[in-house]
Design goal:
This protein is of the alpha+beta class. It has two domains: 186 residues, Ribosomal Protein S5, domain 2 (2-Layer Sandwich); 131 residues, Alpha-Beta Plaits (2-Layer Sandwich), CATH 3.30.70.890. Helix content is 41%, strand content 24%. The strands form two sheets. Strands 1, 2, 3, 4, 5, 6, 7 and 12 form an eight-stranded mixed beta sheet that branches. A four-stranded antiparallel beta sheet has the order 9-10-8-11. Strand 6 and strand 7 form a beta hairpin. Helix 3 packs across helix 5. The N and C termini lie far apart (47 Å).
Length: 346
């Protein structure tokens, strides 16, 4: 670890309990435009951050326990060697920051999220990224987006087993990301000012890990059938990147529709998702598809800004919820807030 970073972190650790400080952070959700499932086996994918965010607040605490509170998942405390429970992945992300800082610290972490869980919007990765960013900020440890993504990926491994890594990358970097497993994520230069994403929730809960495993098992049984589909998906992602860079959103929408057909071929669609996808297209979306693991969760529709409300209305009667979301150019962000010191009484 860089000596100056270690010195700064250790210097702050001696005063954490003497100065009332809080660090806050937030991280965006994500939507995969093209490439989910195929990305697990090395094909590229393109995803964008959306301005629906998870937030975390970190405060110093006595001892070395990390207590994590969530309005959705309750509260749990973790010490060295502790594990298990729905909040444990968040603790894993915090542990990654402790490793980088070269020390542990007593910590109270409060998390909340506006990102629907289990809906394909990267809720768990955003929560982990926000927790990592808040903890690092409290410790005075500067992190790059890639380092935040690595901490979130450690948490995602607990949640999903074999994650591609795209969710941590997008929530950490923000904007549009070209992602290929094992390579550094690349920001795509694209202007999303003319379009909006409309998300519609099927209301069906599902396990990302189980669906990824099922697709991989199908590919193992029929490699001669599915290998060409994976190659086609890689070509599609390259064409989508080029179209985004040119601002050709009509082509992006067309490619999203094709990608949806590929995902249906992998067996991760169902009648409800198809109903939502086709309702969005008929209402004027440029393209609509499953986003995320499928089997339930969300569909995403790409729309011209002026058409987004109409598409959302068409979906609202058949979806558990709808969200109109702009693309977020900001990834994980954090800030340190010191409580005001009281003036001595006269």
């Amino acid at each position: 670890m860089n000596a100056s970073i270690e010195k700064r972190a250790q210097g702050l650790s001696s005063t954490l309990l003497e100065t009332p400080v809080k660090a806050s952070a937030s991280a965006p959700g994500k939507v995969i435009l093209v490439g989910e499932h195929f990305v697990v086996e090395g094909s590229p994918a393109i995803a964008v951050a959306v301005d629906v965010r998870a937030r975390a607040t970190a405060e110093a605490a006595e001892g070395d326990l990390v207590t994590i509170s969530s309005r959705e998942l309750g509260e749990a405390s973790f010490g060295p060697g502790a594990g298990g429970g729905p909040l444990y992945p968040v603790y894993v992300a915090v542990q990654e920051i402790f490793k980088r800082a070269g020390r542990r610290a007593g910590l109270r972490l409060t998390i909340e999220s506006d990102i629907p869980p289990g809906a394909g919007m990267g809720s768990s990765a955003a929560v982990a990224a926000a927790a990592a960013a808040a903890t690092a900020r409290l410790l005075g440890l500067p992190l790059s987006p890639d380092e935040i993504a690595q901490a979130a990926l450690a948490a995602e491994t607990i949640v999903h087993g074999k994650p591609s890594g795209i969710d941590p990358a997008v929530t950490s970097y923000g904007g549009a990301i070209y992602f290929k497993r094992g390579a550094k994520p690349e920001r795509i230069s694209a202007d999303f000012g003319r379009v909006r994403l409309v998300l519609a929730d099927s209301g069906i809960q599902r396990s990302t890990g189980a669906l990824v495993a099922r697709v991989l098992e199908t590919k193992r049984r029929h490699p001669e059938v599915l290998e060409p589909l994976y190659k086609a998906a890689a070509n599609l992602a390259e064409k989508a990147r080029s179209a985004l860079e040119k601002g050709d959103f009509a082509t992006v929408g067309e490619l999203m529709n094709i990608n949806h057909g590929m995902l249906s071929a992998l067996g991760v669609s169902n009648a409800k998702l198809e109903e939502l996808v086709y309702a969005a297209r008929e209402a004027g979306a440029l393209g609509a598809k499953i986003t995320g693991a499928g089997g339930g969760g969300m569909i995403v529709a790409l729309c011209w800004s002026e058409d987004a409300e109409r598409v959302a209305r068409a979906l609202s009667g058949i979806a558990a919820r709808t969200i109109i979301a702009p693309v977020s150019e900001k990834g994980a962000t954090s800030a340190l807030a010191r409580a005001p010191t009281s003036r001595p009484s006269s």
